[in-house]
Write a structure and sequence with these properties.
This protein has about 180 residues and is an alpha/beta fold. The chain has helices spanning about 20-35, 40-50, 50-60, 60-75, 95-100, 110-120, 135-150, 160-180; strands spanning about 10-15, 35-40, 80-85, 105-110, 155. The chain is globular, with a radius of gyration of 16 Å. The structure holds shikimate-3-phosphate. The site of shikimate-3-phosphate has 10 residues, from loops. Shikimate-3-phosphate binds next to loops.
Length: about 180
Amino acid sequence: MGVDALRQIRNLALIGFMGTGKSSVGRMAADILQFTFLDTDDVIVARAGMSINEIFKQHGEPSFRELEGRIVEELTRRTKTVISAGGGLPVKTENLTSLKTHALVVCLWASAEKIWERVRNQSHRPLLNEGDPFEKIRSLLAVRGPYYRQADVLINTEMRSLREVTAQVVHQFHMAQAAHR
Ligand code: S3P
């Protein structure tokens, strides 16, 4: 029996760049599967009692990443949960490895141009609030691509509605659960 056959698929984790629709798709998928929805950013904000912008400003990105890592550890105890992971979370290899022990990891993908189109009018993401945000998206996406591609499933969101992406995600989850039963 391969290592893969020993994996438990109790949860569904969505990874991918900011603006790829992880939270919207995650909420809809949780509804369909009748799972709990958990957004790692929401947990961090609730615990810190301040926005992500404030956490970055007052404590710095490393402190944010530490909080993120702690939540990833706690997630190993969950069942029937759809997890929407912050965009930078899978860049730490142990985070991705940990998610894979209990969840099917699905990456939502989009090009830098499409992401820029989706996030340009938003201001809650500190990494895109300074300098040239489009350039930042391109460079971060280039660095993160290899990590995102380690997901079990990669779904291009560009030509699909959120509903279609959700249907794909749920389908993949059902297939993975059947294969690991
Ligand atoms: C980040 C993505 C954000 C949030 C933080 C940092 C990143 O989450 O965790 O602003 O490094 O890509 P979303 O991907 O949910 O926007």
